[in-house]
Amino acid sequence: MRNALEKRIGRVVTIIYADRRNGYTKRRIKVLAVEGDIAKAFCLERMAPRTFLLPSILAVEDGAASRRTRSADGVPGGYHAMGR
């Protein structure tokens, strides 16, 4: 996950992550930095800075990727599945 986000610093991506209540959330964020196990970002849904735990991020999609495509591992929407 670290590499996927480090490559996208300064870019808008969509992430899917497990929240504190074991639910799943989809957010569009601008990646600002990756430090340790944390991604610092500006959340375009909340219009505020946020931090995301890397182990909780389940997938990353480039902002311009089509939702109808499939990644090489068969995940729909251009998402890149990440192991937990």
Using brief descriptors, characterize the structure shown:
mainly beta
Walkthrough of the structure:
- With 84 residues, the chain is mostly beta strands.
- The protein has one helix and six strands.
- It has one helix at residues 2-6, and strands spanning 12-18, 24-35, 38-43, 48-53, 57-62, 80-81.
- It has a six-stranded antiparallel beta sheet with strand order 4-3-2-1-5-6.
- A hairpin with a 2-residue loop joins β2 (24-35) and β3.
- It is globular and about 30 Å long.
- The N and C termini lie close together (9 Å).
- The relative contact order is 0.23.
Terminal residue distance:
9 Å
Q: SSE order in H/E notation?
A: HEEEEEE
Tell me the strand percentage band. over 45%
- Can you count the beta strands? 6
Task: Let me know the average pLDDT.
Answer: 83
Strand order of the largest sheet: 4-3-2-1-5-6
Q: How much helicity do the residues have?
A: under 10%
Number of helices: 1
The oligomerization state is single chain
What can be said about this structure in brief?
The protein has one helix at residues 2-6, and strands at 12-18, 24-35, 38-43, 48-53, 57-62, 80-81. By secondary structure, the protein is mainly β.
